[in-house]
Amino acid sequence: MALIEFKNNTFFLKGFLNKNNAEKVFEKAESFLQKHESDQLIFDLKNLENIDSAGVATLNQIQDNAKDISVSIKFQNISEKVQDSLKTFSSENLPTLDSSKKKAGIFENAGGKIFEMLDKIKAFVYLTADMFYWGIGGLFSKKGQRKGEFVNQANLVGVNALPIVALISFLVGFILSLQSAQQLRQFGANIFVVDLITISMTREMAPLMTAIILAGRSGSSIASELATMKISEEIDAMKTMALNPIKYVVLPKLYAMTIATPLLTVMADIVGILGGFLVGVMFLKIGAAAFVDRMASVMVLKDVITLLVKSIVFSWIITIVGIFYGLQTEGGADAVGRSTTSSVVMAIFMVIVADSVLGLLFY
Q1: What are phi and psi of 92, to 5 degrees?
Q2: How far, in Å, CA of 210 to CA of 169, rounded?
């Protein structure tokens, strides 16, 4: 407990000045300051046995308040122990902000943005390399991986996404055939709707629509989960326990996406062609057998390979982007939302870019 006395323009502090009594000492000193008549006051710390950071902050605040009313404060008879605390916790030696510093110009801002972007690209490349390194190594060694998590993730990514992927693919195939049927009917080329729906769904629409749905559904889920783990310091806790977050958290998601996405894409292709089949039979009066025969003659192995390659590449893009934005998250709960939104936008953008490149390669 600290005792404070005031005599002959001098405060005498005794005992301990800490967080438990700092407020009372401050209020008492302030009452003396309000009644003073001298332009200098002295704090005698000869009998002050110890002081903590709260006590130092109290003395600094008293000193600042005294300056506001043109009173100087002098400390005397400071013991070595108290002096050490004052040096450690005092704010007097802290550097002040330079308010006259010029604002960054347009070129400095542009340079800063470029360096920030380069840093993100470097981090993205390192993460991608890490994921593929441990992904290949994880096929031969299960050490450090969570048991049963692959099945859980495959269920979340694949089975739960089945209804929405099937519905969207069916509607895309149905609408695509319906719109083309009107034009083909004018030229008596009804049968070519089979060519159109088979090739377009297999080579383009099924992989692309499945990837966009998974980017919005599974990619956002991956990003938000990793972001939550990052801001709640679960990732740091894993590293402390010598667990590799890539092997423990990321690999099951990567494996699940790699397996589930091609299966979902094949299913989307079949359902989309089914939508075209209904249009062909109902509106263009194409016989069911003729439709199937034409489809079998049109579809070639290259179309199936294109579908599988695209779906696997898209699954990796969605997973890596989701993981990257999740692990880059810093801040509070609002940062989770920003990371999730950014991951979905970037994943869809990169999927479309990759689709363009693969489209040229398999043209």
Answers
A1: -70, -30
A2: 8
